[in-house]
Amino acid sequence: MVPRSAHQDPNADQVVQLDAAGLHYRQLNELVRATVAGGMRKIKLLNVHGQRYIGTGLDLAVDIEVFGTPGNDLGAFMRGSRILVHGNVQDGCGNTMDDGYITVEGRAGDILGLAARGGKIFVRDNVGYRTGIHMKEYQEKCPIVVIGGTAQDFLGEYMAGGIIVLLGLNLDSGEFHQCRFVGTGMHGGAVYIRGQMRETQLGKEVGVQELSPEDKELLRGLIMEFSGHFGYNGDEILSGTFIKLIPRHLRPYGRLYAY
């Protein structure tokens, strides 16, 4: 056994269970912050029913396991924590997230990853409207969103950086993704789509590329990570057909605002 360092937090391996039943979101978040301030780094939240802002602004390496359906802005402004949700999440999950991991064993609502500038978000099933809107890369950080199902309209809208992977694992053979206006206003980053999509579903600001060897290597790593979270066969997913969407211009609307 490796001896515990004198500088290691003695509470690092302890798991604290907090019951969210009947708690207002402010009460729950105050309880979470007090638990973290007390040195605890592993928290299980039970009976979560729509409480907002869970994990918002955390800048420590805290593991939070959520049982239930958290409300809006789960993990917003988060800097390095890890959140696992046994259920669905509502809107704004990962809003302006700087670093960390969010794993969702279900669906996600609208504006997933809004303005995220780092970290990874994995969603097993479908996502709502405007996923990845205004995502951006910041210095060495690159936000990543991997979606197992499909998405609603405006996927990757106004993306300035980062990576979105849409796998369509719940689509039947030959079935097309239904999202429209994909990549509208996109001026950075990349969107990888597995399965079929019509050109008319894409925004005018994006172009389609075949995958390079570097793209395939990147996708393999992300899909194997996704598969490890949710019990899929990564090689089987990778055997599907992928396209890559990239922005045509760095300033698609520049002429509207400047001479």
In short:
The protein is α/β, with parallel strands linked by helices.
What does this structure look like?
By secondary structure, this protein is of the alpha/beta class. It has 4 helices and 11 strands, in the order βαβββββββββααβα. An 11-stranded mixed β-sheet has the order 1-2-3-4-5-6-7-8-9-11-10, sandwiched between helices. It is globular, with a radius of gyration of 19 Å. The relative contact order is 0.09. Mean pLDDT is 93; it is low at 1-8.
Portion in beta strands: 25-35%
Low-confidence stretches at least 5 residues in length (pLDDT < 50)? 1-8
Count of helical stretches: 4
Overall body shape: globular
Q: End-to-end span in angstroms?
A: 68 Å
Query: What letter string, H or E per element, gives the SSE order?
Result: EHEEEEEEEEEHHEH
Primary descriptors:
259 residues; alpha/beta; eleven-stranded mixed sheet; 4 helices; globular; disordered N terminus
Topology summary:
Layout: E1 15-19, H1 25-37, E2 42-49, E3 63-69, E4 79-86, E5 99-104, E6 120-123, E7 144-147, E8 160-166, E9 188-194, E10 206-209, H2 213-230, H3 234-238, E11 242-247, H4 254-257
Parallel strand pairs: 1-2, 2-3, 3-4, 4-5, 5-6, 6-7, 7-8, 8-9
Antiparallel strand pairs: 9-11, 10-11
